[in-house]
Every structure is written in C-alpha cells, then in structure tokens.
Specification:
mainly alpha; globular
Length: 88
Amino acid sequence: MYTIKNYMEEAVGNMIDKVLENIDVCKCPKCKLDIMALALNRLPPRYFVTKEGELFERLSELQEQFTVDITAAIAAAAFIVKSNPKHD
C-alpha cells in the first residue's frame, strides 16, 4: 500500500540538533517539537509517494540552498520558542 510522506519533516528532524547546539534555547522534547512545527510551517512541503520520489527529494538535499533554508527556518523558530516557551 502506498503512503504519502513529507520529506521536509525528515530533513528538519535530521538537522535540528545540529542547528540548536549553537543556540541558547530550551531543548526539551516539547520545545524541540514546537521548533520543528514552526520551522516546517516556514518551509515548502516536499511530498513523495514512491521510492523514486524519495530519491529525488534526497538529491535536492545536496543543494546548498536547501540546507541554508532549513537552518534559517529552525533558527527563526528557535528564537520564537525561546521568547514564548509553552512548558506545562
């Protein structure tokens, strides 16, 4: 059975720890998920269904601008969460 996936979720998830290690922000699971959600809202989705589609999206990861865009979105989201933490 086929499923639809947003490759951008995986890409942000793979980069978030690296980006956040240089930012003074809470890194608890709730804050990290808030940062990911905000970052994903700033980035265009990259949906795929087939393995070929997934490979195409992984190739775009090699583009420098792709990495810069994700880093900028995570950093911007981190500063929002730092200013407005939503801890229980």
